[in-house]
Write a structure and sequence with these properties.
Chain lengths: 171, 431
């Protein structure tokens, strides 16, 4: 019986070594963005922009959670965990994560992501667009700390800023 | 009033020429045209756009000035297209500020990427700090496991560091002692328990002058009040030829001291065994010869008289034959006790062998020596021994002569003793 909904599993990403022996496991940023923005196009028309943004955040949460579980070492102390996260995001060409402010005691952070996969180089649209990133960051922090996090993008390439800036804090 | 392109061009040209000549002043780049005075149409739209560009340039200029002055929280309009690269720079600087604080707090996981030479320099610095950190960890492991106490003090003698062994040995906690002068605490008393005169200690002097020194017989005061014998080594810590402090390494030598003391005791015992006759408890022949030699040297130097008395138990063979060797031994012990109690403490009394004994009497001439021998003879003849038979002895006396040796003095006393035996025993004969 086919289920009405789908539960993501890391294994569903498939074996790229077998599946793409010649083309490899990388693709172009344009293709990634083509998929994301066409999803946004269709979903916003079906559900409205607000609902679409919420869905992208939720998808980002799942992605962040799975990324953390499967790629990162959650046993590291916080400083070393962030250092590893930063390096992984560079290695996977997601973006250049940097910390501007960190209140370790109450887990409040201001993070920036330069050369972001979702938005860097976009025309100035006058609004932040990195909803997926917001969820992605919250998902990682939730998986690492066990607490719910709220991530809000305050600056974006699409608002005229050359870097995406995120306020991250526990809920 | 801007009426045509030519007049607008001239106004703008004059404005830009002045800016190029004098720079942007405190008022910034002032757009020289009031758009309200420009008639509607292409000229007005052009002027409005250009005024907006002038505004952005001014804002970017002030923004750049703020960043150059270190104001990392400076703000600029989002739609300012000239400020966008500066925003990226601002984000990087903010991040670097945070990273620097992290490094200062000991977080060496920081790494800078994509900032050109700065990334290389920063990452080299981190690598260097990591190596230093690793070195410090290795040194800490060494000092933690070292069987010696280690103190590091500053040039004023105040404690900077103590390893666990130092805490264990003396009982002072590092956190309690840090910043305090330690030699007043650990080196306040001498071995006999009296207060150390502070200024005179080699320890204090080494700290004051940055001298190296070693003391294998030092005493430190424990927190419990116990005085601990220690072997201590001090070495100055120099940086650019300037004294930075002193490393004090010490170890507990209590067991070593005990061992040394036991060795001394054993040596004393061995020496005694080598000097004492096991039957009678008085000096043996070897010790007697050593002591006689010393007395002969004194007699030579001070021209003082010296007499040797040799005595032999009369008919001792009969004692052994009639009453057994055990009884013979009892007789010899009793005789030694009688003679030993009858002579001066400055006299030397020894068993020469068998039933023969010798007495050296310093500062006594031949006549006095004969009197002493006579007294001893009488005491022996009056003593009751553990056998049912009187015990007597014969005596021969010799006096030191110039050029005498121990052998010659004893030889003459022996000859005199022989005469005493020959003349009937139980008597005294001079040389």
């Amino acid at each position: 019986m086919v289920k009405d909904s789908y539960d993501f599993s890391w294994e569903d990403l498939g074996n790229l070594e077998i599946g793409r022996p010649n083309l490899g496991n990388e693709t172009s940023v344009a293709v990634y963005r083509l998929m994301q923005f066409t999803f946004k196009d269709v979903l916003s028309k079906e559900l409205g922009k607000e609902k679409t943004s919420q869905l992208f955040i939720q998808a980002g949460l799942v992605a962040g959670r799975e990324f953390c579980r499967n790629i990162l070492n959650t046993s590291l102390p916080l400083n070393e965990f962030i250092a590893e996260l930063t390096q992984k995001l560079v290695d996977l060409k997601v973006g250049i994560l940097r910390v501007e402010k960190a209140e370790m005691d109450n887990l409040k952070f201001v993070l920036t992501v330069s050369e972001d996969l979702d938005c860097s180089g976009l025309p100035v649209l006058g609004e932040t667009v990195c909803n997926y990133d917001e969820g992605f960051i919250s998902g990682i922090f939730k998986e690492y700390t066990g607490k719910d996090f709220l991530t809000k993008e305050v600056d974006c390439w699409a608002t005229g800023d050359r870097t995406c800036r995120f306020d991250v804090k526990p809920v | 009033m801007v009426s045509n392109s030519e007049s607008l061009y001239k106004i703008l040209s004059d404005c830009l020429s002045q800016v190029q000549a004098t720079g942007i002043g405190p008022d910034g780049l002032v757009f020289p045209v009031d758009c309200a005075d420009v008639p509607e149409g292409e000229h007005k739209i052009f002027c409005q756009n250009l005024e907006q560009i002038f505004f952005m340039l001014n804002e970017s200029y002030r923004y750049a000035q703020s960043l150059a002055g270190g104001e990392l929280n400076a703000e600029v309009s989002r739609n300012n297209i000239f400020a966008m690269p500066l925003k990226a720079l601002q984000a990087s600087l903010k991040h670097l500020t945070w990273q620097t604080r992290q490094v200062a707090a000991g977080d060496l996981s920081q790494k800078v990427s994509f900032l050109g030479d700065f990334s290389l320099s920063f990452n080299l610095m981190i690598e260097s700090l990591r190596e230093k950190d690793a070195l410090e960890q290795r040194l800490k492991t060494i000092t933690d496991t070292l069987g010696e106490g280690i103190y590091l003090v500053d040039p004023h003698g105040c404690l900077v560091f103590a390893n666990p062994e130092a805490e264990h040995l003396l009982g002072y906690r590092e956190e309690e002692m840090r910043g305090k002068q330690i030699f007043n605490t650990i080196h306040s008393r001498q071995e006999d328990g009296t207060i150390h005169p502070h200024v005179d200690t080699r320890f204090a002097s080494a700290i004051r002058h940055g001298h190296a020194y070693q003391d294998d017989n030092c005493v430190f005061s424990c927190q419990s009040g116990r005085l601990m014998p220690v072997s201590v080594t001090c070495r100055p810590v120099l940086f650019d030829d300037t004294l930075q402090g002193l490393v004090i390494a010490f170890r507990d030598i209590t067991e070593q001291k005990k061992y040394q003391q036991s060795l001394l005791t054993i040596n004393e015992l061995l020496e005694k065994q080598a000097s004492i006759d096991s039957l009678t408890g008085i000096y043996n022949r070897m010790k007697f010869l050593k002591l006689l030699t010393v007395e002969i040297t004194k007699a030579q130097r001070y021209k003082s008289p010296l007499t040797v008395i040799m005595l032999d138990v009369d008919n001792f063979k009969n004692v052994n034959d009639d009453f057994g060797h055990h009884s013979g031994d009892l007789v010899l012990r009793a005789l030694a006790k009688v003679i030993g109690n009858s002579i001066r403490t400055s006299d030397i009394f020894a068993r020469w062998g068998g039933e023969e004994f010798l007495v050296v009497t310093p500062n006594i001439d031949l006549n006095q020596g004969l009197q002493v021998a006579e007294k001893l003879r009488e005491q022996l003849s009056e003593t009751t021994f553990a056998i049912p038979r009187p015990v007597t002895a014969s005596f021969g006396v010799s006096q030191y002569r110039e050029g005498d040796s121990d052998t010659s003095m004893i030889h003459r006393a022996d000859e005199a003793l022989y005469r005493a035996k020959k003349n009937g025993r139980n008597r005294v004969e001079p040389e």
